[in-house]
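Model it.
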Amino acid sequence: MRYDPRRTSLDLYPVRRTITPLFGDTDALGHINNVSIARYFEQARVLVMEAVSSALDGRHPFERAVLAKIEINFLAEVFYPHEIVIATGVHHIGTSSLVIGSALFQRDRCVALADSVDVSTAAQGGSRPVPEDSRIALEKFRLAYPQ
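Modeled.
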């Protein structure tokens, strides 16, 4: 993931949820640990899929999907007990894959960015093209880059 300063703006992300970190998410220095941050980005992926599924009348956008890659850039320390905004949306739709772009915000500051790649697969294995109705629904949740 190439650093793009536009990705640090909360306004870019169409799907958001505010969470309160748990004490168990911290390390010995009182920071939110890296494993917890990775879990928050997992939650971001789920938020996008729930939003898209809602646009598809409850149907999942893929027969199956597998996480192929996740890349996280840590931009600042994240502290307990301050709330965190998980912000996410569709960054890119490929032939059989989807890139979800996500960010974490704490105290109005972007503290981490992530890109995750999900691949649409068939139940018997192998990649499968993103269905057209899913592609249309995914477009509704695309990151809102300024024109």
